[in-house]
Amino acid sequence: MKKLVLLGMSIFLLGACGNNSDTEAESSEEVSSEQVESVSEESVSNEVDPTEFNGDISDSLIESQQFNAEGTDGYEWSYYVSNLEIQDSGALYITLIDDFYMLDSTEQQSVLKSAESSANTVVFTKTENENDLKRSAKAFDESGQQIAEKYFGDEFKFE
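The structure assignment produced for this chain is given below.
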């Protein structure tokens, strides 16, 4: 009799475990479909026209220039930048004033990095998408001649 009770309990436990694994399989199927829906919604919501940020980027540049004019440290770069604009392609265009040429190469790199960082900060805070921080950038003088460019994580290379 004792063996029969143990056999019965074993069958019951195996049945319960079998049902539990079916439930787990269903749960994991539900979770994965929810994850797929979540990813799909996320990718749709992040498909934003980059030029929608140009007004905010311009406002940020003007604010930086005002801080620089007031003598606030860390905004010196903004003196050399006359315009920041994201193109339809997603590339950042930086327009520089002629005084930029009076800087040494280290200072020029610093100005370009700071200008890029300023624009990327505006985009990042609006989209919360790190991919927006990975864009190419080109620097132009006031006459429209390209003087430097950079691709994604590279340094600006001067022409």
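Interim note for the steering committee: The mean pLDDT is 75. Helices lie at 2-45, 54-69, 105-127.
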